[in-house]
Design goal:
By secondary structure, this protein is of the alpha/beta class. The protein has three domains: about 80 residues, 2-Layer Sandwich (Ribosomal Protein S5, domain 2); about 240 residues, Phosphoenolpyruvate-binding domains (TIM Barrel), CATH 3.20.20; about 60 residues, no CATH class. The protein is built from 15 helices and 14 strands. The N and C termini lie far apart (about 80 Å).
Length: about 400
């Protein structure tokens, strides 16, 4: 059995993080060593937190080296706890208090134009992410975390959900591919996560497995409220089964496509034009629309090409997507600006919705605009445009009353 373990990150360029090396011994009590540039200011707090965690796990004899690069308490606690639980067998969890502002839930129907991916084992990228106001922040436990770091990343993500201010954005976690990802749920479900992304999804049964595990955890912890799911389609098989996946459960609110893995599965190269993924993206959009959920496009990987990103968003929007992923905060504004309805779209939608209300008020069974008949799906799409315009501030909530008065 191992008696020494090292957890965390250190070295040049590492910030807002720490590395801990824990050795269990048979005697001599706790030997705590702190190496930190801020030791003179925060040394006592670091020592207090470390001793509190060791005492919580009833460790009386150990050598603990903390090499600190400006880690916040929730990060340091995650690193120390992960080290402890690598060396001992226990069901206990050391949990810092949940921030009151993290107790919110999100609704099924909300803007999901942007979702910002953040590596689950890189705390420095998480700390101020909320100030950029993406629609969702994804703490990623899958592709962004090296295989030998996934265990410790689970503690960082768990603690971030409890102690990091997300400024009201939707708090998302991408778990690992099922079945490995089922273990991730134990760490995140009790922490009021709003939405879980299920990567490389290829069947409805994977969604069922995730929900079964979620329900077991919710019962165990007495958790109420919804936890939404967003499957990610990343293979040819997933594309073919996309409608079954989209309709697998009531808490599936959106479905995304991941084009890097999809094009790799096809054995082709991903291009900005997207001809190689046109079928798959259209299939996902149609599956989502048929299921009544949001279709979400893949990320645009060139963070320096804003014009390319804009063109990509416009192509995505033209295919029917409601949003896309992003990997850098500078992409958020471009995504929001170009997924939001344009002025001509809003004006057309207003005319259609006005015509519908006027026909309804007059008791007419047919809606017309000028000489054209308007079908219910057209009215529904127009109302969706109006709703998005209101949510993005491009249209006032009481726009019909104001136009009637004028």
């Amino acid at each position: 059995m191992d008696t020494t373990i090292s957890i965390g990150n250190k070295g040049k360029g590492v910030r807002s993080d720490c590395s801990v090396t824990l050795t269990l011994t048979n005697k001599n009590g706790i030997d705590l060593q702190i190496d930190s540039k801020v030791k003179s200011l925060f040394g006592k707090q670091i020592e207090q937190l470390a001793r509190q965690i060791l005492a919580f796990y009833e460790i009386e004899n150990a050598i603990l080296l903390v090499e600190d690069s400006g880690a916040l308490p929730f990060v340091m606690a995650a690193r120390i706890e992960a080290a402890v639980r690598k060396l001992i067998t226990t069901e206990k969890e050391f949990l810092l208090p949940m921030l009151e502002q993290n107790l919110y839930q999100t609704v099924r129907e909300r803007n999901r134009f942007s979702r910002l991916y953040l590596p689950g084992n890189t705390p420095s990228l998480m700390i101020n992410a909320g100030i950029h106001h993406p629609d969702g922040i994804i703490l990623d436990l899958e592709d962004a975390v090296a295989p030998d770091k996934k265990y410790e990343a689970s503690f960082v993500v768990r603690n971030a959900l409890r102690n990091l201010d997300f400024y009201g954005t939707e708090r998302m976690v991408r778990i690992n591919q099922v079945p490995r990802g089922l273990e991730d749920l134990d760490y995140i479900v009790p922490q009021n996560v709003n939405l879980i992304l299920v990567p490389k999804c290829e069947s409805a049964s994977q969604i069922h497995q995730v929900n079964e595990r979620i329900e077991t955890i919710k019962v165990k912890h007495g958790i109420k409220g919804n936890i939404w799911l967003m499957p990610i389609i990343e293979s040819a098989l997933g594309v073919i089964r996309s409608y079954d996946i989209a309709t697998a459960a009531p808490n599936v609110v959106a479905m995304a496509i991941g084009l890097e893995d999809y094009t790799a599965d096809l054995g082709t190269k991903r291009t900005n034009e997207g001809n190689e993924s046109f079928f798959a993206r259209s299939q996902v959009v149609n599956a989502c629309r048929a299921a009544g959920i949001q279709p979400i496009d893949s990320v645009f990987s060139d963070v320096g090409d804003m014009e390319g990103l804009k063109n990509n968003v416009l192509r995505s929007k033209s295919l029917g997507f409601d949003g896309m992923g992003c990997i850098h905060p500078r992409q958020i504004k471009v995504i929001h600006d170009n997924f939001a309805p344009e002025t001509d779209e809003i004006e057309k939608a207003k005319k259609i919705v006005n015509a519908f209300f006027e026909a309804t008020e007059r008791g007419l069974g047919v809606v017309s605009l000028g000489t054209k008949m308007i079908d219910p799906p057209v009215v529904k799409r127009a109302q969706r445009t109006i709703d998005v315009a209101i949510k993005t501030g491009k249209l006032k909530q009481n726009w019909r009353e104001e136009e009637h008065v004028s």
